[in-house]
């Protein structure tokens, strides 16, 4: 099927479908149109007959033309005007030119409500048949949705028409509207007074709806300073309602009369509703004398009331709760019953109308009305052809009904063209006012919306606007984030739109409390209104705007992905939540096996020094906490096992309520980081309570990853909604994909502990035996003093060429890994890397600081430090420091070790204590071979520090760090 809004050349086309712009949601009509049909759309801004002629000029030998438009008796809405018998007579030659495109046996199908429902309508069809030479079919009742009384049968036919597939497909289209705008015709020269009343008048046959004739009961009431000299002047424009009201109130007074209209079944008082009723007050003017009579009209309970721009009218204070306009100056006058738009009031009364009210009258100034100028004639029409193009909304009706006055070539619009509608068209897909076969609301390109979002933005580059009004306008926007069917004020944002600019000043951005309550996998709605009307604000997603356009869009809310687990999950303190199945399908032995699986995972965490907290809850038909978030330590393992036995294993179960389990887990906290991961164990599907999707969503929105653990009878499909939807991935140990997997398949309870440990092992690989000891060497004294010739030796020096003498982790990380566990470096790692000038005989003290930092204890630690050249080891440097208990009695002590809160001195001899000095020329132990940078043969100290546990925090434990000192004298 070819679709275009411009003339379409197609040698293959044998059938043409022409759709008027006023036919909304037309894409629903075209789903099954045959491929040999060409589809065209009439612009709302152009002449309808002229456009049809241009379209048909591109074809020859057509078998059929299908014309879809709003209709009423003897007329069709085509483009920017209505075509009626007078139009056909005036433009006969133009319509005759269509014959060049038609085959000798061509058929024309007119799909419009009630076109042939009257004698005049049948004559209209006959005239068209004569001009085109075609056989013609037209409707004499409602055309469209059967639930609204319509059908797709064209009851009135002239000629021998062939049954056509397009007609058959239209009937199968499930189109949910009717092609009708109700025109009220008050051409009743003798309206009758209703029995037993003095003020209710019946106008017969004002319209036909659903095949039933409608009368209008008009009640005249609230007469104030006025006389109704003529209920309806039929002398000119007999189809209009034209009351004549005389002012009786004198100077500086208001006169008025109220007219209440009730639509009823003909000959009865039974109310009937008319579809899409419009109203226009055509001739609201003055009497020509300065400061004298100014006419006014007030419309009550209408969907929309507005005036033209420019206008001679102004808004005035309401008299009866409606919207009142009056002529600005009494000297503004039209001759007779004029048609100048500047004197007109326009109104859309509603999509389903049974009654409405209008108040009319005169404001009289200080120049008193007298004589022939006092009676003023109103001229009211109820025909869409007399109304400016109005743009309506098409989101569901709960969102309110906005409307914007203007023209199709408006200076203020969204996208490439402005819509014009014959009424609001609420639809589930917000495409009700589609006029071109695809979504023609093209002013906004929506950004994706995720249920986990806490803010939402549409960039200015995604917003196409036109503003050539000469001044600034505003783009107003609402999104129904919480899906409650209304646009709330906290779901609103806006941006200015400057004159001559094609996008707003900035992005439309929503944040705060309004961006909440979203449900993934659902559809919500967004509304955009561009206008200069200052009455539009956060609280007016509905209502009238004097210019601009409205666009509604359906917006899908996607389900947030199940967040992948960070690679450093096991290197930081993480919280884990276990939700255990205790329903009646889980036996005692199976509850024990769930317990054993949890304990196996906790033991794994302890064995591999993985810092974490774990909380455990259980569920059956209800839920309870087994143990709140508790640190996982070796000391706490019995506490976990006891809680599992007491609060889980030894308690029987009932029905299976997954939602209860998640709700219990939520009660322990879902703020970001609590928990980081949820393990959900289940061996049976839900048979109690609701879906846990919303609760699972809360965890995912907070950043937690959910694993579905399907035991025995369950499979991956059972966990899609609570994990990652269609992207849910099964854990495979061979793929080592635990960080991104969402589901663990457990074929048997006997496999549960192994499968869960395998998952945890993939998440947190076993710690490798990778000890490491860091060394920092400094000069700490010269001649026993911490200052040498102005050089401070009692200061912290951060050597920029050495990664390991501070608690700042290097980036990129060096090898071996850096540390942040030194005792406070600025007070612990004291000393200089350059001790200043020395001379022969000066005594220099060296301090070597050490720290065990790795993944495990450093076993049997020894280190060797050679005495610098041109210096001599001082053998008795630390004789005054308390000796280590294992050293030789009376021997000199030239080595000191500060460790685990104690400072002890060690002998230089090989007498069994921790340290030893090797004089020059000695055979050094193998440990000294590991210091290739030290090539001196001037003696060395060797210290055996034994086993040093790895640091787990700053200065923790105290046995993970210390310092070794020795002194040497300059030769």
Account of the protein in words:
The chain is mainly beta. It has five domains: about 1-170, Rossmann fold (3-Layer(aba) Sandwich); about 190-380, no CATH class; about 390-560, no CATH class; about 575-765, Rossmann fold; about 775-970, no CATH class. α6 packs antiparallel against α7 (about 635-650). The radius of gyration is 45 Å and the shape is elongated. Residues about 1-10 have low confidence and may be disordered. It holds the Pfam family VWA. This is VWFA domain-containing protein. It comes from Acaryochloris marina (strain MBIC 11017). InterPro entries: DUF11_rpt (IPR047589), DUF4347 (IPR025592), ECM_Assembly_Org (IPR050525), GEVED (IPR045474), VWF_A (IPR002035), vWFA_dom_sf (IPR036465).
Question: What is shown here, in short?
Answer:
By secondary structure, the chain is mainly beta.
Query: Going across the major beta sheet, what is the strand order?
Result: 11-12-13-16-23-18-21-20
**DSSP strand count:** 54
Which range best describes the helical content: under 10%, 10-25%, 25-40%, 40-55%, 55-70% or over 70%?
10-25%
The rounded distance between the terminal residues' Cα atoms is: 103 Å
Protein name: VWFA domain-containing protein
Domain VWFA: 575-763
Pfam families: DUF4347 (PF14252), GEVED (PF20009), VWA (PF00092)
Region (Disordered): 415-448
